[in-house]
Amino acid sequence: MTFYTPIPDELKEYIDKWKLKKGSLIMILRSVQDYYGYVPKKICFSLAKELKAPLARIYEVLTFYNYFKTESPGKYKIAVCMGTACYLKGAAAIIKAIEDKLDIKESQATKDGLFSLENVRCIGCCGIAPNMRINEKIYGKLNKERVSEILDEYINLNAGVSSSQEPPIL
Amino acid sequence: MINAIINGIQIQVEQGTTILDAAKKANIKIPTLCKHPDLDPTAACGICIVKIKGSDKMARSCCTEIEEGMDITTHDAEITAIRRTVLELILSNHPNACLTCIRNQNCELQSIAAEFGIAEEPFEKILSEEKIDESIKTIVLEPEKCIKCGRCVQACQDMQNVWALSFVNRGIKTKIAPAAEFKLAESPCVSCGQCSAYCPVGSIYEYDETSTVWNALNDPSKYCVAQIAPAVRVAIGESFGMESGELATGKLYSLLKRMGFKAVFDTNFGADVTIVEEATEFVKRLRGGEGILPLISSCCPGWVDFMEKFHSDMIPNFSTCKSPHEILATLAKTYYAQKTNIPASDIFMASIMPCIAKKFEVHRSKEMYASGNQDVDVSITTRELVKMIKQTGIDFAALTDSEPDHILADYSGGGTIFGVTGGVMEAGLRTINYLITGKNLEKFDLKDVRGLKGVKEADIRIGEHDLKVAVAHGLGNVEYLMNKIRAARETGQNPPYHFIEAMACPGGCIGGGGQPRNVNDAVRNLRINGLYADDKNCKHRNCHDNPQIKQLYKEFLGEPGGTKSQELLHLYYRKREEYKSYRETDFLF
Fold it and tell me: Tens of pLDDT along B353-410?
């Protein structure tokens, strides 16, 4: 079983530019994430070869920063605010409600690829705490029931549409 | 020199000394947890903090260099209170499972908790939910007990250059594991076990197979035999109050007989055979026969696994000789079985090794079944034998010496120094000299290849030949030699060496991953001296002079490197992926 996959030309060009400069792993990983929306495992294997760096080194950096995603995000990216105001207003219960409803944990995507969940720091809407963002849309003054309704709206919107979208790679 | 004051005591130390080391000069022990003398300080735990006059921050003494005029306080009520809090916080992420832990009474965290008299747990317990990883069946990772000191990561990455273990995630979610959610068995791990040797707690340890040995000993249909590796005899005593390096060969023979082994052999005998075979192979290659130079030693299974994963272009250079314990086991189930009329399938061979990688080696490929059965049935580490001894109630240190079963146990000085870095080279050259010149060396000691320097190179004249040899120990040091060979190959030059010895563990097998813990260079040197003293006291210093070896070739094997030897005592290699979906079973048959 081989894990290697060719690096797309566009990325390769960027990587070649940076790979000789010490300390640019983060730059390269950012470009990978920009391209795919996350950092796929197969690309990491190819990167390790390309950069002559151990895979473990790449993953140490990748898993250290919250910014980097190792799993494909869902069609709808749910970001629950865990900033101070939202935290105090019960953001933890909001996350729990979403986890239970969608049967996923934080930093995971649903099997059908529809939703992914992460927690973020303040998104600047403290007046309507606790709140969350789904893609670019903000939802405030949340409670367990409201969360369930909102998610149902998205689920219904996609009912009938084949929701099992292929992730961009793998 | 730097002048400073520690707890009111004037001291003078060399520039670059840490506060931690400087305090030792004033006979002060600053408590530490994550620091190990072999490794660079990681400043992970924070136990070793001290006060420096004029600074309002406390400093970690393990990684702070002492400066001229510093006035340092290492112990006062406030410092002790902070250290205690640090410990309590560490304990809040550590299970209270001491009674059932493999490191019970041998745990650095347990000891320091006792030193501080920790009696209660003020913080809420938050334990890792990561599962135990025993996929590789040589090393076990138990993440719940990990205190994230990072010693294993340093050993695996910086010292061994394997990069199987790494820090994954951060903060409270930090865990030490292979990259990308791979299990250890799917990772580049070569089972050298250095991670387990450095782990201060019960988070990384050898895959315990003592019950396999007990079950065999209790099975009347089995004819249990054992063999002891060279490095075990100079280290096991440490666990029973003996000095490091004190030779316990005779005690081990007595012990194993008392435990119920019907015959006790010595891996040193196997080492003698290895050298006779390997030296023959070398001389063939040197004289332009089959195979290329440099010849690279293959008796260390961690190194072999590493080579197959990271340096597989060196496969043609590898000696095809099996390691001594595999050779001895094959002979036990063929030569010995024939001579004693015991069916080979009844013989149960337990190897007692300083090594964790041997647990993988015993079933690594079909050549490990050369006798028709699995040649070594189980390989246990020195530490596992220690545990078994404690269960027998035998007072090991008080045992008197006894004799082994000579036919597969008598050994030469060359065989016993297999356990130290440079030993295979030295023993090999002694025999190579004989094969080339027809005479034995007048001076047996080859000092150039001895000692703890990471890479040792030497020029030796044997007969017509000027031989260049090199020795590396610790996998991180091997890279240099491999690159040098590669560079010469690529530019069409002659190989830079004729013969290379490589050992995975620092110091060679005496510093093996399965040896009693708390090892540093001082301990390594004592163990090394123990084996060189054994060499000196041997009646025969050369492997080829061992009368039992001569007998073996005369009665059973025929010529060194001959058909029978090739069939029983040699093996072949293949490239392995660094990351993979489990150990390939198709490699077996």
Answer: 999 999 999 999 999 999 999 999 999 999 999 999 999 999 999 999 999 999 999 9
Write the CB contacts of B271 (distance below 8 Å, at least 6 apart in sequence): B230, B299, B324, B411, B414, B415, B416, B418, B427, B543
- List the B59-60 sheet strands across, edge first: B9-13, B2-6, B71-73, B49-52, B59-60
Q: Contact, A87 vs A127, CB < 8 A?
A: no
DSSP B130-197: PPPB-TTSSEEE-GGG-----HHHHIIIIIT-----EEES-GGG-EEE-GGG--GGGSS-----HHHH
Q: Answer whether residue B245 shows pLDDT above 90.
A: yes
pLDDT of residue B521: 95
What is the structure's pLDDT at B585? 39
Neighbour count for residue B374 (Cβ, 10 Å): 16
Could you report the predicted ipTM of this complex, rounded to two decimals?
0.89
CA distance A76 to chain B (A): 25
Distance between CA atoms of residues B557 and B272, nearest Å: 14
Cis peptide before A54 (omega within 30 of 0): no
Closest CA to B203 of B236, B171, B177: B177
Residue B469 has pLDDT above 70, yes or no: yes
Question: Does the annotation mark B278 as catalytic?
Answer: yes
**Structure tokens that stand for B410 in this block:** 């008598």
Domain extent at residue B51:
2-75
B26 with B138, same domain: the answer is: no
Put simply, the answer to whether A56 touches B577 (Cβ < 8 Å) is: no
CA of B297 vs chain A CAs: smallest distance (Å):
26
A41 and B165 within 8 Å at the Cβ level: the answer is no
> What superfamily does domain A76-157 belong to in CATH?
Glutaredoxin (3.40.30.10)
Nearest to A55 among B169, B180, B580 (CB): B180
In a domain, B294, yes or no: yes
Residue B479 forms contact with A (CB below 8 Å): no
